[in-house]
Amino acid sequence: MLLLLCCGFGIFGYRVVFKDDAEDVAEKYLSAVQDRSLDDLRAVICASAQKRFDGGNELDDDESLVDWEITSSKERENSATVTAEFTGTDGGKVRTGNISMTLLKEDGDWKVCDVDETRD
């Protein structure tokens, strides 16, 4: 009985400790955009957002994400909103603004499904 209890907690504990929360996934999303890594981006976006990158669509070469800071995060059972302030470039000009990411759980994992950007 004790062994079963320990093993059961071990599996549950592993999922709780090593499962990414919504903020971690938002960080991975922003890192993938910064690195222009479509493979990493596809790993953290929801199925409905995958269509945007079908056919090998690439990220805009004129824009780049330089830096960001997560400013708020609100997690509910199956949805979350993560907001970040960012600095980037667009056509060589420095720009700043806010990014609001909506995440949903798919098969128990957080995925970015919608991104709204507001530029200063």
Automatic annotation (TrEMBL):
SUPFAM superfamilies: NTF2-like (SSF54427)
InterPro entries assigned to the protein according to its UniProt record, in alphabetical order: NTF2-like_dom_sf
Name of the protein this chain belongs to: DUF4878 domain-containing protein
Organism for this UniProt entry: Micromonospora viridifaciens
